Protein: Kynurenine 3-monooxygenase
Organism: Flavobacterium helocola
Amino acid sequence: MQTPQKIAVVGSGLVGTLLAIYLKRAGHIVHVYDRSPDIRTVEFSGRSINLVMSNRGWKALEDVGLDEEIRKIGIPVDKRAIHLQDGKLNYQYYGKEGEAIFSLSRGVLNRKMVDLAEAEGVEFFFERKIWDVTLATATLWEGETEQGDWTELKYDKVFGADGAFSRIRHRMQRQSMFDYSQEFMKIGYKELHIPANADGSPKIDIHSLHIWPRGNFMLMGLANLDNSFTCTLFMPIEGENSFESLTNEEKLVSFFATYFPDTKDVIPDLVRDFFRNPNSYLAIMKCFPWTFNDKIALIGDSAHAIVPFYGHGMNAGFEDITILNELMQQYGDDWDRIFKEYEISRKPNADAIAELSRRNFEEMSAKTADANFLLQKKIEKWFSDKHPEKWMPLYSRVTFSLQPYSEAMAIGDFQNEIMQKVLKMDNIQESWNSEEVENKILELLE
């Protein structure tokens, strides 16, 4: 336990609510502010991508005994189901037997987290707009409008968990020596929906992440608890085969008939969903420092927003909390030191998962349909099963271990160099699981 302080968390998303639980358990008075209505009272759909929980996220939940509660609302997913344009379906298992990520509806999970935080004694203040913060005194400024009258709210500490367009970070950006970058990808996304069958059974396998890879665009689907699927169409915003080009029902139906013919019977409301749901955009946001003295700290997307192609936005944010909590245990009331070590520890790992997530769009949208890539994955799995102490595939390092992201990326790059040499071996398609290939990898690893 630390000396109790009065702490504000701005943002009632997943990272903000879990952080609030940790701070409450450490003995603090915790208030959470959010400009939106209570998520438990609103319909949540139209611009969502289902979340996947992996080891880093589970670790943060296990440390406060909440993992079993969350497992009840998730669906284990142990493989990719790759839908090729010619109708073929390939499966690619993620890890070793028994290893799976969990598909979770963002809305269902967020509602559950708010319930759990309230049960701990965290106080929530919804529909309260925070416009600014005085960094030196941890004073929040709240009001109905940005130009209107504001009320001051005094705290000992403020955590900015208010997402990629954080108001807390906005104030920090106006200091000297504050680095900030924001990059929008040229790809947008739109939510679509696969309902369950009339008898409640699923139309496609619920234990797979379904991918329809088509080069520079793709469709993706993850199961919900009611056996429906939340699907996401990722496409360029402009140009050929883009959101800009699909302007009417005829073009949309023709496009899906050409590129996603096997979805005709499973997405019955394609036209309605496509033209009703908004286009959403993807940004990568980096900044540093993440803290101001012992008063203010950024966490989750407000410090490091990434694109969703590795499924690690939430997992990386939850890991921020794990590291922060370890430092709180280690240094007690020395918040200066806690904050400094927190940002120094997390920054390189946040940058690494941002880069890995960017790269994974290419893997999911193009490489999963590429014979050479599939062969590489097969060889890696075979060699890893034979020599688990010498080779863990990059995906497993990121998803099924707690190895720092920056280390996982460096080792993954080294392993990929080895695999490019192996794929150039004579007759590799036939001899991929031979002693010769095994020895070649062992030699390259030395």
About this structure: The mean pLDDT is 95. Residues 276 and 362 are 28 Å apart (CA to CA). Residues 335-365 form the longest helix (31 residues).
